[in-house]
Amino acid sequence: MRRGLSLGLFLLLHAPAVSAQISPGPLARAHASLEGALRCTTCHTGGRQALSANCLACHKDIGWLVQRERGFHASTGGATCASCHPDHAGESFALIKWPEGDSEHFDHTRAGWPLDGRHARATCADCHTAKYRVSEATLLSVRKTGAGWTGLERTCTACHEDPHRGALDHTCVTCHDTNRWHETPRFDHVRTRYPLTGKHAAVACDKCHLDARLGLRADARGRPVPLFRPLAFGQCSACHTDPHAGRLGPKCAACHVTGGFKVFEAASFDHERTHYPLRGAHQRVSCEGCHDFSDRPGARRNPVAFAACGDCHKDPHGATATLAGRVVDCSACHDLAAFTPSTFTAVRHRDARYPLEGRHAAVRCADCHVKTPATAGGLWGTARVVIRPPYARCRDCHTDDPHRERTEQDCRDCHDLHGYRPSTVTVGAHLKYRFALEGAHRAVPCAGCHREIQTVAAGPRTAAGGLFPPLRFSAPQTCAQCHTGPHGGQFAARADGGRCDACHDPDVWRPAARFDHDRDATFSLKGAHTGVPCQRCHRPAGPGLDRIYRPVTAKCESCHGSEAR
């Protein structure tokens, strides 16, 4: 009997050690070399997370992909290997517990390669074959035969032959989609170095890219493969015969346009060959906008002054746009793309009298440089934009001052340019106010006392409506203005009127550090009374009071003797 109890106690105390030696089931066939009780520690060392690290020590291709954030394993959010690959499930188990049940229903988007178009109709075996496993991960994989699920590259040419023989880049989806190869729905000739305009837009692709003069190569079926690059297009003569036989120079486009050879427009003149190439919005200006082609006496087609914008354009700001006290040319704040928006950035504003810092750097120009009404006169020019608004005080721009009674104080005394909230007033700065923050008050948030801050009113930022209700910040004079006293009116008859700070300090409410029973009470504690706890004499009171402190009888028999019991 004792021997049986001893054996049972031994098994109970050593149960974890015994159970750790019992395999939960046979390993899958792929891990058959790890079978056996003496091989457990090959994988099982240091807990579940260490188990995953041991898996990656063998399956280096998975670790390689995860480090580069590629494939399904990079999107698992740090899940353990065993959550999808339970090993002790039998010799015939395929070692994969698919999230969707099987490989055919796997959501391929989670692998970083969504299947659409014709790819959506492909089976797993169509792509996951040994011949397509070409990536660096394949060299690291312990799998040396068979298809596997990793090792495939995501470029089109990893699986498909490049019919362009490297003439174009390998990003096939720039022009093609996954539905049909012989159509290019994503290709737009406008994005090429030679956009098709005029009559060129109606020319069939094969007219240029299947020209026999290009020396085309044939595909496996003997069909000529179109040549897309390199293709000469720098001069019209690359495709067209020059009817002028070179007499007028090689640049046909100096006089002609793609709308038709017989269409001659002065606007098609190659202005790049002049001293003033046309850029930006100037390219849309008609020739007559600068040049006088009329036959009237005195008409001059050239020369045209162009050294400064003012040679052609009137100053729309009425000479109010200045830097360093001098009127600047339009190009100082605008470019040729368009008159608006201005190119005068927040960084360049540092050169102005009012550098933009903090939140001001993100403010729209029009919020400060407003447009004046048309009836305001011509002070700001035809643009009517106030170039030099007042800026000496915050209130010159901001009218939503919540402290409307403190007009003598500047906003920057309590706020900075990084934001209206939080205030820059610290506990140390509060010392100069009528109510200095001391003790436990130092940890109270601003809104704990200034409760107006908790309310944000809707409405425009105007002096009348205001974004916030008035924040008066009136300093409290007594503790009772913020705190409800637990003593009721017990100490109202005292000379100090029952002020809290007569007995308590701002560090902590209990104990009453400033109260001295010998000095402040009529009953002096002497002898054995010195060690009596307060609650022995000051009993609990009714609602609204914590304890009765006065009146308390001073008669001995009230506390001692039979009637006290």
What can you tell me about this protein's structure?
The chain is largely without helices or strands and 565 residues long. It has twelve helices and four strands. α3 (47-58) crosses α4. The longest helix has 12 residues, at 2-13. The protein is flat and about 135 Å long.
Strand and helix map with partners:
Elements: H1 2-13, H2 15-19, H3 47-58, H4 60-67, H5 124-127, H6 136-140, H7 205-209, E1 256-257, E2 260-264, H8 287-290, E3 322-323, E4 326-327, H9 365-368, H10 446-449, H11 517-520, H12 534-537
Antiparallel strand pairs: 1-2, 3-4
Helix pairs in contact: 3-4
- Indicate the overall shape: flat
Helix content: 10-25%
Count helical runs. 12
Question: Class by helix and strand content?
Answer: little secondary structure
Summed over residues and divided by their number, the pLDDT gives a mean of: 79
Order of helices and strands: HHHHHHHEEHEEHHHH
User: Tell me about the biggest sheet?
Assistant: 2 strands, antiparallel
Structure summarized in a few sentences:
By secondary structure, the protein is mostly loops. Helices cover 13% and strands 2% of the residues. It is flat and about 135 Å long.
Features:
little secondary structure; 565 residues; two-stranded antiparallel sheet; 12 helices; two-stranded antiparallel ribbon; disordered N terminus
